[in-house]
Batch of 2 targets.
Target 1
Amino acid sequence: MNKFFVPNNIYQDRISICRDCVFYFKPTGTCKDCGCFMKIKARLAPMECSQKKWEKTTKIETPDDLPPEFIEEIKELWQDLKTGRAKNQTAKRRMIETYNTIYNAKYSTTTNCGSCLEACYMGIKRLYKKYND
């Protein structure tokens, strides 16, 4: 699991800034400038806003469990993956980005490699089962 999550107070500050920003695309929770899913990006210490509205930090915490927004993301994402195949390209990209973030992996979000996609799918599936039981 990624060891570079920011504490809740920093996450709340960052995501609040994002939600008030003109580049924030509310329907998907993405930034129209950098294209990132902000629930995820705002939680990671080494990340910074492409518009310089918030910066990376060295304040990190190693949680015993995933932050709640990641659990929510997994549950939402699973609706687009539960058939065993991503519903569309956006779901595929979200799956890979979420997997990369949680497991500190580096799969390309544009990969079509079957074993890479299977690893991401199985990782998300394990977490879905863990948090949905």
Target 2
Amino acid sequence: MNIKLIYGSDTGNTEIIQQDVVDLLDEHDVSVVDLADIEPSDWEDYFPTFQELDFTGKTFAIFGLGDQIGYAEWFCDGVGILAEVILKNGGKVVGYTDKDKIYDFEKSLALKDENTFYGLCLDEDNQPHETIERLTNWVSKIKNEF
């Protein structure tokens, strides 16, 4: 299976996590695209173009990083924003994850419903000790769903 991993990282944290994802997908052919190599530095700059794409027949798994304390009312919103465009434009999203009791935020557009994220939401600022287990479980899940 060929996988394209597209990411944007202004701080470098997402770049580190994407490398962990690639390592966990070691038996698959993974090509990596940094949005900064396309032109914009992050998703916000690329989003108008993204909204116009046709995703029919394409399958996506989305992960994002957020800060549950510093941005409690917007935790990982980008995951949900991207998922909704993908679904609206004919794509399929896999890799939904449960919002377990360890998460502690006010609101998030990353939630498909009150208990389920559209993808994987990580908090390297406040819960870095949870990252490896969450990431490993998520990659195992998406391998089965792809």
